[in-house]
Amino acid sequence: AAGVIQSPRHLIKEKRETATLKCYPIPRHDTVYWYQQGPGQDPQFLISFYEKMQSDKGSIPDRFSAQQFSDYHSELNMSSLELGDSALYFCASSSSQTSGTDTQYFGPGTRLTVL
Amino acid sequence: QKEVEQDPGPLSVPEGAIVSLNCTYSNSAFQYFMWYRQYSRKGPELLMYTYSSGNKEDGRFTAQVDKSSKYISLFIRDSQPSDSATYLCAMSEAGGGADGLTFGKGTHLIIQP
Question: What value does the mean pLDDT take over residues B26-45?
C-alpha cells in the first residue's frame, strides 16, 4: 500500500538559511499534519491542514510556515534556521472519510541538520 | 508536567514474555487513544487505535483504556526480538477535526532472544 512520502530524506543547512520540506499524503487522504521530533524526544505537533485550510496549530515557531496545495501535498517552510531546529520532521496524513477518527499515518521523516 | 506521562525505560524482557506498556494522562478531554511503534530513525507506525474506555485486540496486541483512571495500556503477547522498538502512546480530544496528537515520551522496549 502507498505510504506518506517525504522529501528530502536528509537536509543539511547553515544557521540563518531557509529550508523547505515536502510531504505527499497517502492517496485520497485530505488532511496532513507536521511534527517535529528532537533527539530522544517525542513528536511535537506543529500544524495541520484539511482541504488546503489550516486546521489546528501546535508549537510551530513564527519562523516556520506551511501550506497545503490543491493536490493535497504540503510544504513546511523554515526560515532563519537555528541550531535547535535540528530534528526529525514527520508528516502524517489522514482521511476525513474514514469513520471513527482521523487516524494518522506517518511518513519516514526528513532529518534536518543545522550547522 | 506533561499532559501524557510514559516511562521511557528501557524495558528489557525475555523472548516469549508478555509485555505491559502504560501511559497516564491528565486531560480528561482526550477521547481517542493510539499506540505507535517507532524503530530507530524511522517514522512512527500505527499499531492500535481505541476510542473511549474498553479493550481492543489485534493479533498479539491488546490495547486497554480506563478513562476513569486516565490510564491506557498496551499488552504484547508472545513477544519477539522484532518487537524491540520504542512504543509511543498518543491521544487526541476529537476525531475528524485534524487535531494534532499529544504523545508520551515513548518506552524503549528490548526483547532478549
Answer: 92
Distances (CA, A) of A104 to A71, A75, B44: 18, 17, 10
pLDDT of B41 > 90? The answer is no
Using an 8 Å CB-CB cutoff, list chain A residues near B96. Answer: 96, 101-102
Rounded to the nearest angstrom, the gap between the alpha carbon of residue B79 and the centroid of all alpha carbons in its chain is: 15
Q: How far is B38 from chain A (nearest CA, A)?
A: 10
3-state class (DSSP) for residue A65: strand
Q: Which of B41, B98, B102 sits opposite A48 (nearest CB)?
A: B98
Under DSSP, the state recorded for A54 is E
Asked if B41 and A50 come within 8 Å (Cβ–Cβ), the reply is: no
**Structure-block grid coordinates of residue B43:** 517514522
Q: Which residues of A touch B105 (CB under 8 A)?
A: 41-42
What mean pLDDT is predicted for residues A10-25?
97
Bridge partners (DSSP) listed for residue A36? A44, A89
What are A74-109's pLDDT values in tens digits? 999 999 999 999 999 999 999 877 655 568 999 999
Cα–Cα distance for residue pair A79/A62, rounded to 1 Å:
9
In 3D, which of B23, B5, B49, B21 has the Cα closest to residue B108?
B21
